[in-house]
Recover the amino acids of this structure.
């Protein structure tokens, strides 16, 4: 009998926790100690929390590592724990019907997990586990064996570009800030929505990256900018900072090099605009988050008017890897101009929703059909929206396009915050565009005219089209507005706000024209443009439609054909979904 | 003014308003600048934004404190102790400007140093209530600054020892060489649009226009020649002297132009009694003021918007006043009234245009000889001295020396104010202006929106005192001094320190000057001690 | 050498100009008398870059001239058809969210937005749509706010913070609903200096007491000096017929164009019905109206009588810090030369 300890890893990322991960973990701990399992089997069992591993639709995910074999259970609930403990941990037999399916494997297989790798493997609240996987070695190497310029050169060599949106070369940005003679300097890490799994799964990598960056530009202080309501991220980062400080990795005289570095939180509220770096700095300064005019660029005159570097948590998470394994190694991943990997949140009508990390240059087809497992219900893929709300909409004809900064720019999109939403044949592209525009106009900071008024006017025009009152001239106005906004808006939010319209209009012009000229929504989504009616040949007169209709718009006697009064119909679709005989037509 | 004239040989703001923003350190003492000189305060804020350090010394937490690096809350009337304490630190730390002292001053002698040596920050703390650490810090900030300016107003002057206060300030500036250069000096901010001008024009019992003494024969001869008449040889009476003389029956007639001493002078009942005892009182004004109501003849005059002429602002800048509208009814230009009366008194003043008067001023006083209406129209304003038509005016004074030769240090010792609180009158009342109202209120109180937001008198009481008195916001209290009493609503406010209360003097319905004393005038310039009055407060 | 380093030269619309480094394109263009329209820019405030109207073309790219520093060798085009069209559309967007009520607007004739609408001949906006509608508020007696006319240029926010040091207002809400208002939409710390009115380019902020008192073209403007404290602020009084209805101040004055509540709003006393309009002489203990002739004769006779019987020093005069230099000069001359006494003083000589 082996005496190797048995590891039990319970996902306690945001999604895992929401699915009941805390309960599951407690149950494991309880069972193991109460029933004296360790004595019974003569070896240690260590249930521990780990971060998100991306496949959130199957949470709570639990790994059991027994004798070097890893078995992953999906959708674990507390009542399942007892049997897992008895059968698998004590008995040594995995419960096949509860383990993950092939999808789990294919979901992970095609990914290239550099920054997400440790997430889901290590306990994010233990600095020792991070150190055990060579954590803080890169920082030590940078500070004891490299000059700040060496560090920057290494980052330049890696070809790493900012993962927060603009895709500026990180090393170059640091170089500009390093050259500035004004002190103190600041380095800011923006922990955005998409970075939460990193903060929850492997916070020390962010801290280490920030520390190395601080050393490289000679900053005395680092800020973690994060929304206060990301409680778990904040908590894990806070613990990480405390642990790092205890070990002397941050604070005065780091690694005995004479370099002093402090890290502080700065809490933001719900504001999309805070993804814009100058607006973020305004927010840290306690002002309303509105972008500043540039130049001066933050690297020259940033937070409190001092030279400042801002990168997001994903960028910083890459830094220890680059310093540890070398820029050259890093640059071997990806395409000519886009190196490394990129984390995306894959969602929408794709089978496997979740967080994915792909090497730059991977095709949309591999992402959607490989990692994503194809479209739910085997419907037809219609489009993919990439880069967050102001990203572009990619049609199926571009499925084989490799995903990197250059290609996305070419097709009118951005890498942006790393959102990726998949749409199928049931989605109306005009409505989708309107949805994004609704978000953008709500989140516009209101400072500059083209964005503040322009997004609103675009939304109004798109609404008009979805309501069937649009005209050809509205399309021309939309194009003209897009031009003004893209050319004259103050910040990237406003300049990229027309992207969803411009890309969808260029690839789905017919769908727009159908709304305008035919007063039809081909996907049957725009309620103003659809009519529900009864197919008399199929109607059996069961009366179900009549019962579910909230508007009392359906009349008919039992066993006789029912009729929908179009004037009373509110187009909710209840009858359409209720009818067992497909006797309700949607046109 | 008398104070500064003693030290330098002339009394006015030494620097310009525009220079304020280039100060490295600003020491604002006894001035609620943000409310009383709002536009000057904007320059101070600008200086702070540019990196200057602002020190404020005021018994009240005046609004400018928000921008200050250091606020010294001295007890009312203890400024000399505070200033001497600061000088002690400067002397001890060796932060004096020895070259400046040697070349341009006199009186920095053993006695002076000994006096300062005795005024330790510890002793200053006992008198002023300002922690000694703050006194030390203030002294160092001021003395170490390259360009340090001092700004003060009535909080310094309206004391029974107002002249001492001013002399102390001058000592501080002289000791550190903060004079005679740009953005550093001693700057009394003038409270009224043309105080500077009225003073320049010789509306003083001892001085002709341009600070020329009436008692100097040569000067008198010059004016006799200019005016073509024999002039009196002895000095006249100061304003409060005239009131006293009226009470004594020595002064029989008084001609008051555009002033309302009943409301603005201390001890209202005393003022009223004096004016009522006159045989003949003429008041020339634009409104029926409390003073005009006592007059035998009231002459309707014109407001600034109905006439031409010049005002001289606080920085000695002469600027044009222009006519915008016609005067109402029969109201007549003040200059016409004076000319008409003069003619009827047997002395003709045949001016055809106001500019002729201005030209004559230039003849009487060389410092304004270079200023003309046409230059003012073109250049927008000129700061005296401006002796010739091609002179650009003088933004800051004493660049090339002081009028009296060397500036004089004066030995000043702290003397307590005449009005001291006691068991019967335990509070110290200090008076002043508020942002919205102005002076006796004859102008602002006729402006409806101003009355709407700030139309009610009040007494500021510290929250702790208010608690002891069981007074809350809006409680009507009786405030009594040794001179008189009034009732007014309380405003509980953290602005004054404990034991200090404040009443704005704009409101006739609760005229602060019912309470103040006309006794205890400053021995030199005869200014009343309006900033320190002992009072008692009771709930009504 | 050091000096040369800070000098750069560029061309604007084909004209060469040399400026200090750090000079904005806008400032450089103004030196050449090339006018670039602006709405959010104000020479006394830090640059905002909010309105985007001042865009110019540099290397084919539109940049805001108010925020972009001139660079060596830069070639700027201020009014290419491309730029003019964009500019027109930006103004169009602003107008699409602006009430078309110039006919009753207080600022008609001095409104910067109206000027631009006229220049670009935008009768009705292309980008029509919803307009922000706000209930009329009447929170304070000085400043009439019509936030529907606010173009969110931010000048008022900046002047209140940067110049006045108060920070009574800021942006609130997001997106199209963005609005400038005091915290909780209540005037908590406003000093009513009216600086915001001074810098507002439209009719969003106007002086409430002057509402409806006169159209811009019917107003006479006269430069004079404020009658309140000793700052000597330069005032421009706006008079309609014989009434002073409004105050402004020239930007290049010692007060830099700024005023306080008294200078800005406190001058209606000039036209107060309480003004003394006729001489009064006390008869039987009562002041009664008299002619000037009567008042002069009476006054001169009484003064002469007292001088002749009690000597000139029985007469005194108190002059005024409110009157002009000329009047004060005459007043002391009167007492000294006509009466023969040095009993002359003024109440605020200290």
């Amino acid at each position: 009998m082996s005496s190797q300890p048995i590891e039990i890893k319970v996902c306690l990322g945001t999604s895992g926790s929401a699915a009941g991960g805390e309960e599951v973990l407690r149950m494991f701990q309880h069972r193991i100690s109460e029933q004296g399992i360790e004595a019974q089997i003569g070896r240690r069992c260590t249930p521990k929390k780990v971060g998100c591993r991306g496949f959130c639709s199957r949470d709570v995910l639990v790994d059991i590592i027994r004798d070097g074999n890893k078995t992953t259970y999906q959708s674990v609930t507390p009542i399942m724990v007892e049997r897992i403990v008895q059968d698998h941990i004590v008995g040594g037999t995995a419960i096949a019907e509860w383990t993950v399916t092939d999808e789990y494997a294919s979901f992970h297989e095609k990914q290239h997990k550099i920054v997400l790798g440790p997430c889901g493997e290590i306990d994010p609240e233990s600095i020792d586990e991070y150190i055990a996987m060579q954590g803080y070695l890169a920082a030590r190497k940078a500070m004891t064996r490299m000059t700040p310029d060496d560090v920057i050169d290494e980052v330049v060599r890696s070809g790493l570009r900012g993962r927060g949106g603009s895709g500026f070369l990180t090393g170059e940005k640091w170089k500009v800030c390093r050259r500035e003679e004004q002190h103190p300097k600041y380095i800011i890490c923006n922990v955005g929505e998409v970075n939460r799994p990193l903060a929850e799964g492997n916070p020390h990598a962010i801290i280490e990256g920030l520390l190395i960056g601080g050393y490289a530009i000679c900053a005395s202080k680092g800020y973690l900018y994060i929304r206060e309501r990301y409680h778990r991220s904040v908590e894990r980062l806070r613990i990480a900072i405390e642990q790092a400080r205890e070990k002397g990795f941050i604070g005065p005289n780091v690694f005995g090099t004479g370099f002093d570095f402090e890290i502080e939180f700065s809490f933001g509220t719900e504001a999309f605009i805070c993804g814009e770096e100058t607006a973020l700095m305004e927010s840290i300064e306690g002002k309303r988050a509105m972008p500043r005019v540039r130049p001066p660029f933050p690297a020259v005159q940033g937070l409190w008017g001092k030279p400042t570097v801002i990168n997001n948590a994903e960028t910083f998470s890459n830094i220890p890897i680059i310093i540890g394994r070398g820029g050259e190694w890093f640059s071997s991943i990806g395409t000519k101009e886009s190196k490394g990997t990129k984390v995306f949140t894959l969602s929408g009508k794709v089978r496997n929703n979740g967080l994915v990390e792909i090497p730059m240059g991977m095709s949309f087809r591999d992402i959607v059909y490989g990692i994503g497992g194809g479209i739910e219900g085997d419907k037809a893929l219609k489009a993919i929206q990439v880069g967050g709300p102001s990203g572009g909409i990619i049609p199926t004809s571009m499925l084989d396009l490799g995903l990197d900064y250059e290609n996305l720019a070419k097709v009118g999109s951005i890498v942006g915050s790393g959102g990726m939403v998949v749409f199928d044949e049931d989605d109306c592209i005009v409505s989708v565009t309107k949805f994004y525009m609704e978000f953008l106009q709500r989140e516009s900071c209101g400072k500059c005219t083209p964005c503040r008024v322009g997004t609103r006017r675009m939304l109004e025009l798109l609404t008009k089209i979805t309501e069937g009152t649009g005209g050809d001239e509205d399309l021309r106005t939309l194009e003209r507005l897009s031009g003004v906004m893209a050319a004259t808006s103050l910040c990237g939010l406003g300049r990229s706000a027309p992207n969803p319209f411009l890309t969808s209009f260029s690839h789905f012009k017919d769908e727009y024209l159908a709304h305008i000229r035919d007063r039809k929504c081909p996907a049957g989504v725009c309620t103003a443009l659809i009519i529900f009616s009864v197919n008399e040949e199929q109607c059996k007169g069961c009366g179900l439609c009549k019962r579910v209709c909230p508007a009392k718009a359906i009349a008919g006697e039992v066993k006789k054909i029912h009729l929908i009064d179009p004037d009373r119909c509110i187009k909710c679709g209840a009858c359409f979904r209720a009818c067992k005989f497909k006797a309700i037509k949607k046109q | 003014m008398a104070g500064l004239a003693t030290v330098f040989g002339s009394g006015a703001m030494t620097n310009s308003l525009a220079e304020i923003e280039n100060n490295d350190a600003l020491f604002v003492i006894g001035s609620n600048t943000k409310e009383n000189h709002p536009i000057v305060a904007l320059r101070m804020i600008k200086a702070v934004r540019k990196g200057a350090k602002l020190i404020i010394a005021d018994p009240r937490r005046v609004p400018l404190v928000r921008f200050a690096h250091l606020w010294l809350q001295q007890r009312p009337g203890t400024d000399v102790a505070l200033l001497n304490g600061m000088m002690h630190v400067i002397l001890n730390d060796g932060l004096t400007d020895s070259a400046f002292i040697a070349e341009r001053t006199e009186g920095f002698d053993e006695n002076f140093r000994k006096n300062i040596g005795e005024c330790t920050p510890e002793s200053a703390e006992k008198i002023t209530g300002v922690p000694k650490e703050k006194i030390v810090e203030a002294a160092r900030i001021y003395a170490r600054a390259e360009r340090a300016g001092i700004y003060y107003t009535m909080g310094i002057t309206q004391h029974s020892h107002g002249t001492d206060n001013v002399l102390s300030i001058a000592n501080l500036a002289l000791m550190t060489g903060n004079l005679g250069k740009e953005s550093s000096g001693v700057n009394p901010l003038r409270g009224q649009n043309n105080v500077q001008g009225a003073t320049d024009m010789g509306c003083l019992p001892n001085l002709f226009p341009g600070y020329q003494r009436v008692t100097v024969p040569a000067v008198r001869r010059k004016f006799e020649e200019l005016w073509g008449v024999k002039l009196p040889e002895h000095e006249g009476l100061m304003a409060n002297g005239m009131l006293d003389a009226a009470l004594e029956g020595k002064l029989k007639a008084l001609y008051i132009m555009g002033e309302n001493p009943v409301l603005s002078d201390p001890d209202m009942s005393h003022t009223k009694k004096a004016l009522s005892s006159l045989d003949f009182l003429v008041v020339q004004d634009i409104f029926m003021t409390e003073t005009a109501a006592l007059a035998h003849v009231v002459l309707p005059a014109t407001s600034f918007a109905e006439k031409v002429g010049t005002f001289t602002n606080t920085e000695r800048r002469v600027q044009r006043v222009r006519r915008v509208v016609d005067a109402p009814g029969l109201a007549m230009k003040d200059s016409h009234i004076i000319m008409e009366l003069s003619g009827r008194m047997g002395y003709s003043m045949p001016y055809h245009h106001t500019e002729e008067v201005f030209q004559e001023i230039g003849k009487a006083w060389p410092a304004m000889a270079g200023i003309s209406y046409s230059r003012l129209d073109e250049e927008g304003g000129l700061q005296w001295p401006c002796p010739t038509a091609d002179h650009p005016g003088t933004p800051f004074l004493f660049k090339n020396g002081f009028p009296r030769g060397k500036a004089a240090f004066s030995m000043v010792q702290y003397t307590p104010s005449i009005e001291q609180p006691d068991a019967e009158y335990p509070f110290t009342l200090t008076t002043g202006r508020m942002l919205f109202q102005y002076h006796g209120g004859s102008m602002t109180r006729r402006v409806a929106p101003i009355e709407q937001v700030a139309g009610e008198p009040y007494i500021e009481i510290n929250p702790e005192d208010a608690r002891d008195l069981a007074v809350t916001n809006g409680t009507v209290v009786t405030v009594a001094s040794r001179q008189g009493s009034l009732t007014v609503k309380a405003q509980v406010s953290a602005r004054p320190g404990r034991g200090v209360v404040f009443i704005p003097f704009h409101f006739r319905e609760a005229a602060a000057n019912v309470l103040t004393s006309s006794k205890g005038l400053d021995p030199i310039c005869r200014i009343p001690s309006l900033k320190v009055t002992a009072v008692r407060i009771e709930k009504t | 050498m050091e000096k040369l380093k800070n000098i750069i030269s560029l061309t604007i619309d084909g004209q060469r100009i040399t400026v200090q480094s750090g000079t904005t394109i806008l400032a450089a263009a103004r030196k050449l008398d090339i006018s670039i329209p602006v709405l959010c820019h104000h020479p006394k405030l830090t640059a905002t870059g909010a309105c985007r109207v001042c865009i110019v073309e540099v290397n084919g790219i539109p940049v805001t001239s108010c925020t972009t520093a001139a660079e060596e060798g830069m070639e700027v085009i201020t009014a290419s058809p491309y730029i003019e069209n964009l500019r027109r559309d930006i103004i169009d967007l602003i107008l699409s969210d602006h009430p078309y009520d110039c006919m009753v607007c207080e600022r008609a004739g001095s409104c910067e937005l109206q000027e631009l609408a006229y220049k670009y001949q935008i009768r009705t906006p292309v980008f029509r749509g919803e307009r922000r509608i706000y209930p009329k508020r009447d929170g304070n007696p000085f400043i009439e706010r019509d936030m529907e006319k606010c173009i969110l240029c931010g000048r008022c926010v900046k002047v209140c913070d940067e110049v006045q040091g108060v920070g009574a207002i800021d942006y609130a809400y997001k997106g199209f609903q963005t609005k400038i208002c005091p915290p909780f939409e209540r005037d908590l710390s406003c000093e009513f200096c009216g600086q915001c009115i001074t810098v507002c380019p439209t009719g969003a902020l106007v002086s409430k007491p002057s509402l409806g008192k006169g159209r811009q073209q019917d107003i006479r403007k006269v430069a004079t000096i404020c009658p309140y404290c000793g700052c000597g602020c330069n005032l421009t009084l706006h008079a309609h017929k014989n009434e002073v209805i409004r105050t402004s101040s020239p930007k290049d004055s010692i007060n830099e164009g700024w005023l306080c509540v008294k200078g800005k709003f406190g001058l209606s006393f000039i036209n107060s019905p309480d003004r003394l309009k006729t001489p009064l002489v006390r008869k039987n203990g009562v002041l009664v109206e008299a002619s000037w002739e009567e008042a002069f004769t009476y006054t001169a006779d009484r003064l002469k009588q007292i001088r002749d019987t009690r000597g000139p020093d029985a007469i005194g005069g108190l002059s005024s810090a409110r009157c002009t230099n000329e009047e004060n000069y005459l007043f002391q001359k009167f007492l000294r030369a006509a009466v023969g006494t040095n009993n002359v003083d003024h109440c605020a000589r200290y």
Remarks:
- The mean pLDDT of chain A is 90.
